[in-house]
Amino acid sequence: MRKITTLLLPMLCSILFSNAQFFKTSVKDEDFNDSLSRIVYGFKTNFYPIQARQLTSEGLVDVFESSVKIPGAAHCIIQRYHSEEDTTASWQAIMYDGDSFDEAAKIYKNTYRLIKKSKIKYGTSTNYSFTGSMEAPSEEIRFTVSPLRLNTSDKDYEHFYAEVEITSNFPNWEVHLNMHSKKNDDEKY
């Protein structure tokens, strides 16, 4: 009996530990999905429902803290433009800021993966996803961006993009998640 207990105990601990790790990962993905859904939904009203205190004002741009944060982000902001031609807002998260390209590339790819697999909750029964192709980051290229479009026919999201970008400003690397409206040069906001 003692031998069986000795054999079963490590096996049971291993199963419990792996389930705990699996649960931890899925909760993180679920938290990311929930936050992303709230931000995407906030786009419809120019991010006003998730706008917190004002941080700065420079020229034609006011910067506000976002009340909705993406898990893992250093900070999240809303930039509100107030020119005659552009009264839109954009949302941005700094996902990484450091000197390791390898770590930045890992976070860039993981952020892109999380967005791609997210199901955006819209209303009571409809979930939308993002489509796009990831541009592979390279240490030799100092700026790489992967745009994603929301897979919906809703006119409010016709020009909506989520973009994951990796950029270098010697010697640091940064990874950003941006959500904004992006129109052709001949279109007005």
Describe the structure.
- This protein has 189 residues and is of the alpha+beta class.
- The protein has helices at residues 2-43, 101-117; strands at residues 51-58, 61-66, 75-81, 89-98, 120-122, 126-128, 130-131, 143-150, 160-169, 172-181.
- It has an eight-stranded antiparallel sheet.
- The longest helix is centred in the N-terminal third of the chain and has 42 residues, at 2-43.
- Residues 1-27 and 185-189 have low confidence and may be disordered.
Give the helices and strands, then pairings:
Elements (H helix, E strand, L loop, with lengths): L1 H42 L7 E8 L2 E6 L8 E7 L7 E10 L2 H17 L2 E3 L3 E3 L1 E2 L11 E8 L9 E10 L2 E10 L8
Antiparallel strand pairs: 1-2, 2-3, 3-4, 4-10, 5-6, 7-8, 8-9, 9-10
